[in-house]
Write a structure and sequence with these properties.
Radius of gyration of chain A: 11 Å
Strand order of the largest sheet of chain B: 5-4-3-10-9
Structural class of chain A: mainly beta
Oligomer: heterodimer
Number of helices of chain B: 9
Number of strands of chain B: 10
Largest interface: A-B, 22 and 36 residues
Helix content of chain B: 25-40%
Order of helices and strands of chain B: HEEEHEEHEHEHEHEHEHH
Largest sheet of chain A: 5 strands, mixed
Chain lengths: 65, 261
């Protein structure tokens, strides 16, 4: 299935948000995740099922002034 | 130390701060320097930004480099509208960064000057949601009053454009803002040297925010300490109420001749 991951059309084989994050090689500990502009708390990542065409944003805190 | 000095606490909302030097986490050559810089500078509030992750960058997130005793001030950098700033603020709070938020709404990518209208709108929304809002703003008297009425916890007028190290280009307007503001005034952006930080504090600023000048110095730990001392010196000079400038000389020694009465 395809999702929009950080603005890019991306093919994924995982069903859950958590599995997709691991599949794509991200470190889950440092991430903030939004699905369809809704913030998903880390505890809910495993139960969050992704659907075709979902918009997923993966964010993290970076240096800034 | 006089009583006045020891009791000189700065409040943002109901949160007290001893240090009047706010710092930022941008532009450090090594993130490992952030913690020792914070210790040397005594800064109790430090900014961070929020961005999409880069799949190729395997670095830990910036929060891992900040001691737990230091409060996080997420900024809304990257926001071009009030709505984007509000969204970033909500995400930062949900992510566990607390209630502090530095509003940045910027569309001018050459000078990175803030959009005061968008900043005011975002401040209004976020203050109602219980955020402690510190808006980065273009020095303006009317907007200073409007931000107060909108529920901001402080105002953060710029000294000069972000990252320019040009100091207090806005000096005349900053003075007027400091005079009329009922909120703490934090001079943010453009402060490139400790002497400029001291100058802002002598003028009556309640605090300064320094990122680039510390982060891009050759020794950020020593620079952090230097800025802390300058901020302290400037603050003490303000509290001491320094004498005014005069046009003509006024002798410090008796004006009688050396051997004559």
């Amino acid at each position: 299935m395809h999702i929009i991951l950080n603005g890019e059309q991306t093919a994924i084989s995982s069903q859950s948000l958590h599995a997709m994050i691991t599949e794509k090689g991200f470190d889950p500990n440092t991430l903030i995740a939004e699905v369809n502009f809704q913030l998903i708390k880390k505890n809910d990542w495993e139960q969050t099922t992704l659907n075709e065409g979902d918009t997923v944003e993966l964010l993290s805190f970076v240096g800034g002034g | 130390m006089s009583t006045k000095e020891t009791e000189d606490t700065l409040y943002f909302g109901d949160v007290p701060f001893t240090s009047r030097l706010l710092t930022g986490t941008g532009k450090f050559a090594s993130r490992d320097i952030i913690a020792p810089m914070l210790e040397a500078s005594g800064s109790e509030l430090i900014t961070v930004a929020l961005r999409r992750v880069d799949p190729d960058a395997k670095e830990k997130d910036i929060l891992q480099y900040i001691p737990k005793s230091v409060r996080i001030l997420p900024n809304t950098s990257g926001a071009r509208t009030a709505e984007e700033a509000v969204r970033i603020a909500r995400i930062a709070r949900e992510a566990g960064c607390g209630d502090f938020i530095k509003i940045e709404v910027i569309t001018d990518m050459k000078y990175l000057l803030p959009d005061n209208a968008g900043t005011l709108k975002a401040t209004e929304i976020l203050a109602k949601e219980g955020f402690i809002v510190l808006p980065y703003m273009m020095p303006d008297i009317t907007v200073t009053k409007q931000l107060h009425d909108a529920g901001a916890a402080a105002i953060m007028p710029l000294g000069s454009p972000i990252g320019t190290n040009r100091g207090l280009e806005m000096k005349a307007m900053l003075k007027r803002i400091i005079e009329i503001s009922k909120l703490p005034v934090v001079v943010d952006a453009g402060i490139g040297r400790p002497s400029q930080a001291a100058e802002a504090m002598e003028m009556g600023a309640d605090a300064v925010l320094v990122n680039t000048a510390i982060a891009t110095s050759h020794d950020p730990v020593m620079a952090g300490k230097a800025f802390a001392l300058a901020v302290q010196a400037g603050r003490m000079a303000r509290l001491a109420q320094m004498a005014e400038e005069k046009e003509y000389a006024e002798a410090s020694s008796p004006l009688t001749g050396f051997l004559r009465q």
